[in-house]
Design brief:
With 73 residues, this protein is an alpha+beta fold. 23% of the residues lie in helices and 26% in strands. It has a four-stranded mixed sheet with strand order 1-4-3-2, with helices on one face.
Length: 73
């Protein structure tokens, strides 16, 4: 059986990354979906290269990473 560790999606800007995190929170709080895991999103963190990211779990419990690569790369 093949199993994913996580899926990563890249945002075009740091602002878009924040919008995606806010949107996930609104969707989760709406009660429209039943999530397998109730863990909220991580904070947005910035690594040494300037890459920003946060993690969430989708409705099935698959971990999703949302990231924005800095323009310095």
């Amino acid at each position: 059986m093949v199993q994913f560790q996580h899926v990563c999606l890249a945002a075009g800007s740091a602002e878009k990354l924040r919008e995606w995190r806010d949107r996930w929170l609104r969707l989760f709080d709406s009660g429209r979906y039943r999530f397998a895991l109730t863990d909220g999103p991580t904070d947005i963190v910035t690594d040494a290269d300037g890459t920003q990211s946060f993690y969430v779990f989708d409705v099935n419990g698959l971990e999703c990473e949302f990231t924005h690569l800095s323009g310095d790369r």
